[in-house]
Design brief:
5 helices; about 35% strand; single chain; five-stranded mixed sheet; alpha+beta; two-stranded antiparallel ribbon; 7 strands; elongated
Length: about 180
């Protein structure tokens, strides 16, 4: 699988200009890809993984492509409580904006010159070489959806009985009695 060299897990590139025109596609992980991803995430098995992806252009001062992704899969993993294997479904969504590197302008703002908002934290991904790697977004969505310590249905954590340590005075009293 030569396309795994860049990301290591999944690469599926589309041209920025094609994505801006609007795409709808479904990515389905084959067995080899699922095995690779399962190993990377510490799963026993990734039984299925599909992602429904749409792209569209977002109007603004710079050309931006919005990638929307809905992820579904089935995973077998160890229960975070009982350590028994169990199988369950996972799902997740991701929406991210992308902008081409040559369109990014460098802005230098003085400290305190402007007030930052939550929107400032969600800057678009900068795309190089005119291609968006949709595979990396599938892996990102999976990382957000997967709970490595998920509990098997019905598994309940029971706190162990605390070991009652004898007080130092009880130990001294026992030593006196033993003499």
């Amino acid at each position: 699988m030569s396309d795994q060299q860049d990301t290591g897990l999944w690469e599926h590139r589309v041209r920025f200009d094609q994505a801006a025109k609007g795409l709808t596609l479904d990515l389905v992980a084959d067995e080899a890809r699922r095995d690779l991803i399962a190993k990377a995430f510490g799963m026993i098995e990734l039984n299925s993984l599909t992602a429904h992806i749409t792209t569209r252009s977002v109007t603004g001062d710079k050309p931006v492509v919005r990638v929307s992704l809905a992820l579904k899969g089935e995973v077998t993993q160890e229960c975070g409580v009982s350590l028994e294997p169990f199988t369950h479904e996972i799902s997740g969504e991701l929406e991210i904006d992308c902008i081409e590197k040559q369109r990014v302008t460098t802005e230098v703002a003085e400290v305190g010159a402007r007030e930052f908002t939550l929107d400032d934290l969600d800057e678009p991904d900068v795309i190089e070489n005119g291609q968006i790697d949709l595979g990396q977004y599938v892996i990102e969505a999976l990382g957000e959806a997967y709970d490595p310590f998920a509990r098997k249905p019905g598994a309940v954590f029971e706190e162990p009985e605390p070991v009652k340590e004898p007080s130092p005075f009880a130990v001294l009293a026992q030593l006196k009695r033993d003499e």
